[in-house]
Structure prediction request, 216 residues.
Amino acid sequence: MRIVLLGPPGAGKGTQAKLMLERTGMVHISTGDLLRAAVATSSTLGRAAKGFMERGELVPDQLVTDMIRDRLSAMGAAPSFMLDGFPRTVVQAEALEKMLASRSIPLEHVISLDVPREELVRRLSGRRTCRVCGAMSHVTSDPTRRPGVCDECGGALYQREDDREETIRARLEVYDRATAPLITFYRGRGLLREVDGTGPTTDVLDRVMARLELAA
Ligand code: AMP
Prediction:
């Protein structure tokens, strides 16, 4: 199956992708994770992307599209994947469509996670990420057993630079301007599956799976 997870920052795309990975074994491709890894190693891509990411702006389409093209071409003939954080603009969506059409592997579903604005800000501003394994927690709604320490691997937690209040606002504005038009784009393709992204993560997962008609 080939899926795009769509939604504003904080909608739970990464969380749902990880839960779906456990249930379905589909490959999870997160452009945010790939870009953060590129920044951490200071690769050419990472150096080009760093400033945009710190400001909460989008990395230029060409850089991200090339990165995804490389990632997809490393997969087999009939890949099964979830794209998380890509596409984020109509230009990227059109590029993806061309990439997949050239290999006759069209997208099957676009899951759009719907979460009210105040809840997005609350989730993002309290979000903490593990430096070692990338696991996410929340200071009030999903705290780790020991403050500042990852439950999964014992690594140190940090607040992503772009999860600070001012940058969160910028990221949400970017979403409204550049990414929200993809809802209309994919609705027009008959691929959009809208899902309520509020409440416990496992409830959201059940709704997602039901929409994908994979539920037991
Ligand atoms: P995320 O972890 O998905 O919230 O992404 C973190 C940051 O990486 C975003 O705020 C952007 O700066 C950059 N980024 C991730 N995916 C994309 C994309 N598809 N297009 C442009 N920039 C992206």
Summary: Residues 9, 31-32, 35, 52-53, 56-59, 64, 85-88, 92, 162, 171 surround adenosine monophosphate (CB under 6 Å). The chain has a mean pLDDT of 93. Residues 165-179 form the longest helix (15 residues).
